[in-house]
């Protein structure tokens, strides 16, 4: 199975990324985690992206806050699919990072998830790899069914309380 690469602009982003890491661990998916910044360590960020395919990655997750150019900079240097996570920082509620991540120019796509949407980023990465992986796609189906069962349990409790 191809690896999933997680790259974040600062270790201050790690608390959000831990949700993605936990999701990948739950599915026993191989992954690597790195801190490379589009602005502070542009050479390392570029090298990581340029070498990602030959280093066995199948999909990359890039997370950054503020003027969040990391996902775009990574996408500019690989044709692997790149999933961007805008990170909420102390100002502007993450809208700065959302717009910086999502508003890519034509030709260089970034699949942007919600602000701090680390779990969905991991699930989307897994779904991409599951296109060619039956075992993984079955695990994803099971997880969806478990989630649905939990929601239906909650529905039962709400219905019992209000629908007399
Ligand atoms: C971005 O700036 C990082 O991704 C982080 O979200 C934000 C703040 O970084 P630190 O000042 O906490 O290192 O590049």
| Share of residues in helices | 40-55%
Instruction: Please state the average pLDDT score.
Output: 98
Oligomer: single chain
Bulk shape? globular
What would your notes on this structure say?
By secondary structure, this protein is α/β, with parallel strands linked by helices. The chain is built from six helices and five strands; from the N terminus they run βαβαβαβαβαα. Strands 2-1-3-4-5 form a five-stranded parallel beta sheet. Helix 1 runs parallel beside helix 5. The longest helix has 29 residues, at 134-162. It starts with a strand and ends with a helix. The relative contact order is 0.16. The mean pLDDT is 98.
In a nutshell, what does this entry contain?
About 50% of the residues lie in helices and about 15% in strands. The protein has 6 helices and 5 strands; from the N terminus they run βαβαβαβαβαα.
């Amino acid at each position: 199975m191809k690896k999933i690469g997680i790259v974040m602009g600062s270790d201050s982003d790690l608390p959000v990324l831990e949700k993605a890491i936990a999701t990948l661990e739950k599915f026993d998916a191989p992954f690597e985690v790195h801190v490379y910044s589009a602005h502070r360590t542009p050479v390392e960020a570029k090298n990581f992206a340029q070498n990602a395919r030959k280093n066995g990655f199948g999909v990359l997750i890039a997370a950054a806050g503020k003027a969040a150019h990391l996902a775009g900079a990574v996408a500019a240097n690989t044709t692997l699919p790149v999933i961007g996570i805008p990170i909420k920082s102390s100002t502007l509620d993450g809208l700065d990072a959302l717009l910086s991540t999502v508003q890519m120019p034509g030709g260089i796509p970034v699949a942007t998830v919600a602000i701090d949407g680390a779990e969905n980023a991991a699930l989307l990465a897994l779904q991409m790899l599951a296109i060619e992986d039956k075992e993984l796609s079955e695990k994803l189906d099971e997880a969806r069914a478990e989630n649905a069962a939990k929601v239906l349990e909650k529905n039962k409790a709400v219905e019992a309380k209000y629908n007399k």
